[in-house]
Amino acid sequence: MRFKNTKTLLLAAITISAMLAGCSDKGSTSGGAAGENSNSKPVAEQVNRQIIGIDPGAGIMKSANKAIADYGLKDWKLIEGSGAAMTAALDKAIKDKKPIIITGWTPHWMFAKYELKYLEDPKLSFGGEEQIHTVVRKGLKADQPSAYTVLDRFEWTADDMAAVMSAIQEGKKPEQAAKDWVDANKDKADKWTEGVDKADGKSLKLGYVAWDSEIASTNVVKAVLESKLGYKVTALQVEAGPMWAGVAGGDTDAMVAAWLPTTHEDYLNKYKDKIEDLGPNLKGTKTGLVVPAYMDISSIEDLNK
């Protein structure tokens, strides 16, 4: 995610420093020898009763607040920020072998870079397994049949998405990472566009949220529509609410970033009569509370101990 301005970047940096400073004198259980870096204090005290979250409008934040209520986590605070601020806080904590609890989701490159684990969620505050759906505005099939067909056919795997996310995380621009993936997976991309008429420079708007997964998928779809059909695609980075409202209002043509049935449940219920759901483009996603593997904790229930 790109910060919108210097002020946002500064606030995020201050937030991260404050979050981690509170844990600076608190150790954690590491993967080393028995007792190494151990801490007998409850996890709640080790992390100052803080869960590091992302954008306040994200569905995962609603689920995290639900978990706080469901598990009776009194005096716990969910820290709002961004995906970039969250992963920066995670990176610093892991480098210092400190405890941290974040809102996490898969697919995400951080699971490949770090040894992480989900906390068990027996009350299902975060719901079960999810899917990422493609959602388009009403009338797109009649107005833009070629785009509609490609969007309807678009489907890939978590491994596909992870390849693009990892390339971006390693320094490639999203547009280049997407183009490289499309070039390397010609057979898949060709199936999405087989027999579809060219667009001859028609414009199309795709909305997406600044999750690494959605940056990857949106740029891949954009690359396919532009390189194979000749569309002029504008990718609009917004928060989840405006993303759904844009498609429902017809200001945005489509999104491939709808996490259902739980994360974006409220938005679907609000706009379901004003959009068309083309179904899942990726299956087997998950959200929840995530911790480094070296932390001696396995369930959200343990946060009360």
UniProtKB/TrEMBL annotation:
PROSITE patterns: PROKAR_LIPOPROTEIN. GO terms for biological process: choline transport; glycine betaine transport. Keywords: Cell membrane, Membrane, Signal, Transport. One of its GO terms (cellular component) is ATP-binding cassette (ABC) transporter complex. It holds the Pfam family OpuAC. Residues 1-20 form the signal peptide. GO terms for molecular function: amine transmembrane transporter activity; carnitine transmembrane transporter activity. InterPro entries: ABC_Gly_betaine_transp_sub-bd. It is found in: Cell membrane. Residues 42-183, 202-305 form the ABC-type glycine betaine transport system substrate-binding domain. This is Glycine/betaine ABC transporter.
